[in-house]
Amino acid sequence: xxxxxxxxxxxxxxxxxxxxxxxxxxxxxxxxxxxxxxxxxxxxxxxxxxxxxxxxxxxxxxxxxxxxxxxxxxxxxxxxxxxxxxxxxxxxxxxxxxxxxxxxxxxxxxxxxxxxxxxxxxxxxxxxxxxxxxxxxxxxxxxxxxxxxxxxxxxxxxxxxxxxxxxxxxxxxxxxxxxxxxxxxxxxxxxxxxxxxxxxxxxxxxxxxxxxxxxxxxxxxxxxxxxxxxxxxxxxxxxxxxxxxxxxxx
Length: 250
Ligand SMILES: [Zn+2]
Known about the structure:
Elements: E1 2-14, E2 20-26, E3 30-36, E4 55-61, E5 69-78, H1 87-103, H2 111-125, H3 133-150, E6 174-177, E7 182-184, E8 196-198, H4 200-207, H5 217-235, H6 242-245
Parallel strand pairs: 3-5
Antiparallel strand pairs: 1-2, 1-4, 2-3, 4-5, 6-7, 6-8
Helix pairs in contact: 1-2, 1-3, 2-3, 3-5, 4-5
């Protein structure tokens, strides 16, 4: 059976001299792994090798859950070439694609998440070559929070995940614990050995994400550090692209 959908390529590996195994995050079908036969030939049905982060209409033969589908058509309408002019934007997009691949299941559609991922890539693609690093970090953080929410792992951020005390201005600091799946207050932090301390500015931004856009770059780096640790705990290993988006001093 042939399935038509819109998809974003989130992974592509060489399969042979001429073919690739690709993973698409498709709008209606969810994550689809497929073999693209002959995709590396100059005159293939796919207009050359399929590039990660490109998107467009796909057609694939549905072979059932645990098998690779066969990609029969792909017409990319967006290559997102702007991403390749800004290394930090490209690394951030590849990191988001890796997390999306790791946290979603095959054939499990997430329409809202698809639209959010497409918007995230378009926003990064539109950044000028030397656009501010902080603008990219904000978008990456917001996408990571959206991803956690959409796959059912929404962390508690506006209150203590343990005692439920709401976050307020009188918190002088906050802590984040993967074991608690969210923020924990000063009275509860000692119960969570894995917790990381957060400065007040970072805790505030997480409790109210609308403040994220005005945050300083150091605050954003602190939040991203916490998220990378959280994804590492959630996945059981560090995501491969994580070190490319973190400041070296961390
Ligand atoms: Zn508490």
